[in-house]
Every structure is written in C-alpha cells, then in structure tokens.
Design a protein that fits this description.
This protein is α/β, with parallel strands linked by helices. It contains 15 helices and 19 strands. Helix 1 packs parallel to helix 2, helix 2 runs parallel beside helix 3 and helix 6 runs parallel beside helix 8.
Length: 416
C-alpha cells in the first residue's frame, strides 16, 4: 500500500547575473531591474494553489534554488517564508537552505538572510582556480568564495555547503585535490563534489571544451575522496560528503523518494496520493514571463507516474545513497510489492553490483561506479491495457536534482 513519505518544499528562482555555459537548468540572464515584489507575489499564489494537496502534512525542509536566489533581498525571502508558514504545516527545526553564488553576495547580508529564516547556505564555488573559474564562465573569483565563507561564519551560519566540480579543462589530480583542500580550509559542514559533464542545449554542447579523459577523472575522484575521508567528511551519497550531523535533509528526502512541492518558474514536484494509490509529478510553466502572468491559475501540469516507471524512478534516487534503502521503503513509497524488482536485484547481487544485508540493499563499491548501467536494468517494456507497448522514459528521467545527468550530484532542488 502506498504510504505518504516526508514532504519538502522546493522554490525556484530563475534568474542569474549571467548563465554559465555548462548549465542546463531553467535559468535566465537577468536583463534590467529584478522585480522581486512581483515574483514573490507569484510564488505566494502558486503556493496557495498547490497547498491544499498536502493539507495536514508536515514540511521538513525548504530549499531556495535557482538560478541565483541570493539575487533576492532578505526581505523578499522573509515574505516568502512567512507565506509558507501561513499555508503549510512547517516542522519544528525546519531546514531552510539558500543557494548563493559568491559573486552576487554583498558583505554583511548573510546575517540578514539568517534573520529572515535561512539556516543553511549552499555556495556555488565550483573551483578555487581563477583561470578555471573564468573558463567555466563564473562571475566570481576564489577570494570572493573565501570572503563569503568568512561572512557565513560571522553570521552564525556555519552549516553551509560548498559545491565543487572536478574534471575541468586542463585539470589533473593534484589540482582537483587542491580545490578540495581550499574548500575544507573554509570549514564548511558539507561538500558536493561532482564531475563536469557536457549537457545538451548548453553553450558547452555547441562549443565543447577539451576535458580530461575518464582515467584522469577517476584519479581525481580517488585523490579527493581520500582527502575527504581523512578529514572526517563521510560520503553518504554519490557526490555528497558531510561532517557529523551536517547531511542535507532536503536532498536526503529526494534520494529516499520523498515528496516535495515545487513552486516557481519551471519547478517540478512529486506527491504520493495514498487515497488514489498513485504517485504524481507536477511541472510548472518554465518561461518566467508566463509564470509571472498566470502563477496560481492552473499553470502547472500534473502527471501520474505509470506503475511500470516507478521502479526506475525509485532506484534513480535511492541507489545514490551509500547506505542504500530498505525493502519497506521501496514498497511503502511506490505501493509495489518487492517481487516487482526482486529478480533484477538478485541478478545485480550475483554480478557484484548490489550488496544486500537483511532487508537493506545498496550499490556495492563497483556498483557506485556504474550506477547508470544499474538503472537501465529497471527500464522495462511491457504491454499496456491498450495492447500497445509502453516504455519507461529512461531517455528523459524525472529531474530530482535539477535536470542534470543522472549522477552529477550538484546540490539543489527539483529544478535549478
């Protein structure tokens, strides 16, 4: 039987000062003045329209993603969080994360974001090599990341994440390790460490840079993992490392196939409807002008996830976790019997890609290297009721972490 899992809220802010050439998220270069009052009002209408679907359910986390949410003032964030307090049941000790690019933060504002209700920040550092930052199209330099981290500590926001990429043009294992060393020196509680990939539709897809080959990227990852483990940063997900007590609750909910409301231009959501016995995906209109004009007036679509796709969607998330998942989590959050996937899991165990311990299943060290290959085993083609063929959408999987490739690992919400 389908059981409603924990619930989170993702809020998408679609504007950036400049769109990065590797980015395939729903982000748009800001032209002219930011009309934050109008966008916050649109978010409030969107939230009011979607809130009845989760009436009585407690929200455990809020993630403000983008784009660049830190382009919005602390006052705007406070108004949004007040609306969430009014329309939703917020848990005690709620985790509220704000994504911020170091180059868009003014000194002294982190204390104001904290006063507005933010208690966790994710800094998009990407690298501490200024030449590589320029090659990535970033608008900040390494010193700005250092200043932002110092300001976070001064504001009492020591629970912050640093996003880092590896596999950058011209990078070797030593340079990748130095980036991690620089990040750890800033005393974050969390590190997201993921490989640069070229995504369709981006500037880099049309003019791809020369990237290190797979063997070089593997050496980078091994060197960085060794360093992180030595500094007591435990890997708990494919691309996420945390100090004790600093795991990201919001992303853990995604990876455990939890539910989330998605508000904002292009935001995705996922809800488990126990009464109907189905899991649904929601998608908000992407284009900011259309969203501003009609938010809260039926601008998002709602699509039930076919039963044939649920195993793939669950594994797409749960197998990211180093600790894996329990059988009861699969059955409760998909509504499917374990026998649906038991033969495939048995085959993967026999091949050394999945490890089992009682009711728990996780990717083995070998499996963590070949997660995409494992996922494809859960894509099945079966007859539907019309006698036609229904193929699970492996080519266009749901975007639980922003629409990037399956396992790049950038921190964030359902769409960034």
């Amino acid at each position: 039987m389908l059981q409603p899992p924990p619930l989170a809220l993702y809020v998408h802010f679609p504007w950036c000062v400049r769109k990065c050439p590797y980015c395939d998220f729903n982000s748009h270069t800001l032209h002219g003045e930011l009309d934050e009052r109008r966008y916050i009002e649109a978010l409030r209408r969107d939230l009011q329209a979607q809130a009845p679907a989760v009436a009585g359910r407690e929200v455990i986390s809020i993630f403000l993603g983008g784009g660049t949410p830190s382009l919005f003032s602390p006052d705007a964030v406070a108004r949004l969080l007040e609306a969430a307090q009014r329309d939703l049941a917020l848990a005690a000790g709620l985790e509220v994360t704000l994504e911020a690019n170091p180059g868009t933060i003014e000194r002294g504002r982190f204390a104001e974001y904290r006063a507005a209700g933010v208690n966790r920040v994710s800094l998009g550092a990407q690298s501490f090599d200024d030449a590589r930052l320029a090659a990535l199209g970033r608008i900040h330099c390494a010193d700005e990341t250092r200043r932002a981290a110092a300001e976070l500590h001064a504001a009492g926001l020591d629970n912050f994440n640093i996003d880092l990429m590896y596999g950058l043009p011209g990078q070797d294992a030593g340079a990748a390790r130095r980036d991690v060393e620089e990040a750890l020196a800033l005393r974050p509680g969390h590190l997201s460490h993921y490989q640069l990939t070229i995504e369709a539709g981006t500037v880099f897809a049309g003019r791809p840079p020369v990237l290190p080959d797979d063997d070089a990227a593997e050496r980078m990852l091994e060197a960085c993992c060794e360093l992180l483990e030595g500094e007591d940063f435990a890997q708990y997900e494919v691309s996420a490392y945390a100090a004790a007590g600093r795991r990201c609750r919001h992303n853990l909910n995604y990876w455990s196939f939890g539910d989330y409301l998605g508000i904002g231009a292009g935001a995705h959501g996922k809800l488990s409807l126990a009464a109907e016995g189905e899991v649904v995906r929601t998608t908000q209109v992407r284009e900011p002008r259309r969203y501003l004009a009609a938010a809260g007036q039926g601008t998002f679509t709602r699509r039930p996830v076919p039963l044939t796709e649920l195993p793939f969607e669950f594994m797409l998330n749960a197998l990211r976790l180093v600790e894996g998942f329990e059988v009861a989590t699969f059955t409760g959050r998909t509504g499917l019997p374990w026998e649906t996937v038991a033969p495939t899991m048995a085959d993967l165990i026999g091949e050394g890609l999945i490890a089992a311990c009682g009711p728990c299943y996780r990717a083995s060290p070998l499996g963590l290297r070949f997660l995409n290959d494992i996922l494809l085993r859960f894509v099945t083609e079966i007859p539907n009721t019309a006698g036609q063929s229904e193929l699970s959408t492996a080519q266009q999987p749901p975007p639980p972490l922003g629409g990037r490739a399956l396992f790049t690992g950038a921190e964030g919400g359902s769409v960034k």
